[in-house]
Amino acid sequence: MGYWEDNYGDNVDFVNPDDANWQRDPQPPEGAPPIKRVERPESEWDTAKWGKSKYKVGSVVNKTGAKSQFLLTDKDLLPLYYKKAYNSMGYKTTKNYDKLKVERTAWEKYGGPTGLKAAKADKKNGVKPLVNPPLISGSRL
Hints:
Elements: H1 3-8, E1 22-23, E2 60-62, H2 63-69, H3 74-77, E3 82-86, E4 92-98, H4 99-110, H5 112-125
Antiparallel strand pairs: 1-3, 2-4, 3-4
Helix pairs in contact: 4-5
């Protein structure tokens, strides 16, 4: 079993795109850009080995939390659905994303839970990741 089956089952989907409360940012004509993988030794790209999420179905995270907690960018969050929520001033400006889908996106970017954990440790220590590793043979100077 993989991540999705373990966490959601066969036909359960928390985010229903047909629901008027869930919306998505306008997509580019060519579609949302693919997630750029961040390669690191700790990354595990086999989704069957990722295991279960620690978050419950129905939990949400706002955009700022998604970017800081899961180390994602605006481009990574572009294809995900969100609900507008009221901020502390009473304006409907906060975007709340499904936490399981945000976590899944982060795992796809960093290589599972171990890759995300290593990325968080690197960020804490000030290490910059290699998004596109250099060529070993035939490298140019």
